[in-house]
Amino acid sequence: MKGEGCDGPEETCLQFGILADYWVRRHTARLINQQEAMDILKQADASGLVLQPSNSKEAAFLCCCCGCCCAVLRNIKRHPKPASIVSTPFVATMNSATCTGCATCIDRCQTEALRLEADKAALNAERCIGCGLCVSTCPTDSLALMRKPKSEQAEVPKDFDHTLIKIGKNRGKLSTAGMVKMLVKSKVDRFLAAR
């Protein structure tokens, strides 16, 4: 918006369901078909963009972001242990024996979880957010994504509404009484709007 940023593609974030409907009605988004969505995801991977879905089992959106322009990813990157603050079931694993030290993975890692040590890539798992950008272009298949044990995976809310409720409760901004009040107000507003 300021005329600054990287050379990454800009039309890459996807919205689903009522969020998509909202943005289309506001004329700030357009409807696309499944093939166009797949093409966007391929372009995002080729451009080294991190896929960041809504933290919910029923995805509300899927952002495709870089670590320089996306405020969320930039702040995750600033944290000393990014893996501890994101909800991801995966972490990268490294086979140093097959690594040739080409540094392709280092250039693609948005959280600086990889670096060269003694002409081989070295992985800092505390910085890895499990995005898989390093895996998709490793020419020697020295990197892979591994599913974390269940005990290390954060609970994923059913939908984005439940995600927002969980965030509100965790921040102390939302109580059970407050939720009931919002629910009643929402039902009344919908009833009045339908009349």
Which terms summarize this structure?
Alpha-Beta Plaits; two-stranded antiparallel ribbon; single chain; 3-stranded antiparallel sheet; 33% helix; 195 residues
Summarize this entry quickly.
This protein has 195 residues and is an alpha+beta fold. It contains 6 helices and 7 strands; from the N terminus they run E-H-H-E-E-H-E-H-E-E-E-H-H. The strands form 3 sheets. Strands 1-3-2 form a 3-stranded antiparallel sheet.
Describe it.
The protein is α+β, with helices and mostly antiparallel strands and 195 residues long. It has 3 domains: 1-66, no CATH class; 79-154, Alpha-Beta Plaits (2-Layer Sandwich); 160-194. It is built from 6 helices and 7 strands. It has helices at 17-25, 34-46, 71-78, 104-108, 160-170, 176-194, and strands at 14-15, 50-53, 61-65, 90-94, 114-117, 120-123, 143-147. It has a 3-stranded antiparallel beta sheet. Strand 5 (114-117) and strand 6 form a beta hairpin. The longest helix is centred in the C-terminal third of the chain and has 19 residues, at 176-194. The chain is globular. The protein starts with 13 loop residues before the first strand and ends with a helix.
